[in-house]
Amino acid sequence: MIALLGALQNEISGIEKAIRVERRVAGKPWQVIQGSFAGQEILLVRTGMGKQCALKTTAHVFENYPVSAVISFGFAGALVAERKVGDVALCRNLYHESAAERYASDARLLALAEQALPGSALRLFTADCLTVDALAASSPDRHIQGEASAVQVVEMESYWVASLAAARALPFLGVRAISDEVGECLPPFDCFMNSNGEWQVMDALRYFLVHPGDLLKLPGIYRRSQKALISLTASLTALIPEVDGGA
Questions:
Q1: How far apart are CA 16 and CA 34, in angstroms?
Q2: For 33, phi and psi rounded to 5 degrees?
Q3: What does R_g of the chain's alpha carbons equal in angstroms?
Q4: In sequence order, what are the residues at sequence separation of 6 or more whose Cβ sits closer than 8 angstroms to the Cβ of residue 128?
Q5: Pair 41, 2: CB distance under 8 Å
Q6: Which of 5, 128, 187, 244 has the fewest CB atoms below 10 angstroms from its CB?
Q7: Does residue 146 register a pLDDT over 50?
Q8: Within a domain: residue 247?
Q9: Whose CA is closest to 237, among 24, 7, 37?
Q10: Distance CA 118, CA 19 (A)
Q11: Other beta carbons less than 10 A from residue 125's beta carbon
């Protein structure tokens, strides 16, 4: 059984529509959807955002389901100028901003993805990935992260999923679609968004009353996320049939 773990509902929505859903199990903050796609048994998991959600949900999945391969997927920010919205990163090595240990995607899964995806017309690249506890909202901060770490994409969960997969000797692959380029300055979503990616309405109203300029950024953020979602869904639907999901 292949476990696909994404942090937020908008990240898993494309795959959810593509698979044949057989069962849903909801917890806090996670949701597990069992189904099938192209002859493969699929476990589609919404983990929630950040370290604690990723660790808690991934541990629950590994303890309760016969997982044989793990794909951590979702959106990411670019740390170098050449990476554009909609590009898809295959995460070769995974680093955390304050942890010494490095994790790596399974060589076989990485090779399968590199062979399966180019024919799908995706802008695909293989690169190292940095997991952080809080995404840098400003362009200067994002440049600093890229220069300091020599990685190309930044996100908040894959390192932790990889750590638990490594502890169980499960093949792991990180797949991330770029939703924000280096030059983008984002609102501090953690000020008004919970770990499920749901907006806290009163917190959001208070923030945008003080920072009305950030409100004008939201349509562009939505358009970029939709473009990233299309690429993310296309990459996963092309990859899943190639992965051996047998327990």
A1: 10
A2: -120, 120
A3: 17
A4: 91, 92, 93, 94, 95, 149, 150, 151, 152
A5: yes
A6: 244
A7: no
A8: no
A9: 37
A10: 22
A11: 16
Tokens at 7, concatenated: 């942090």
168-178 tens-digit pLDDT:
999 999 999 99
Tokens 């750590």 identify what position? 163
- Containing structural domain, residue 127: 2-242
Please state, in angstroms and rounded to a whole number, the distance separating the CA atoms of residues 167 and 67. 13
Task: Write the CATH number for 67.
Answer: 3.40.50.1580
237: in domain? yes
Tell me if 68 sits within 8 A of 246, measured CB to CB.
yes
Instruction: For residue 148, tell me if it sits in a domain.
Output: yes
Residue 236, token pair as written in the block: 């996963």
pLDDT digits (tens, 9 = 90+) for 20-62: 999 999 887 789 999 999 889 999 999 998 899 999 999 999 9
Q: Does residue 236 register a pLDDT over 70?
A: yes
pTM for this prediction: 0.88
Q: Which helix (H) or strand (E) holds 149?
A: helix 139-149
The total number of structural domains that make up the chain = 1
Residue 125 to residue 123: CA distance in whole angstroms: 7
Evaluate whether residue 195 is within a structural domain. yes
d(CA 185, CA 180): 9
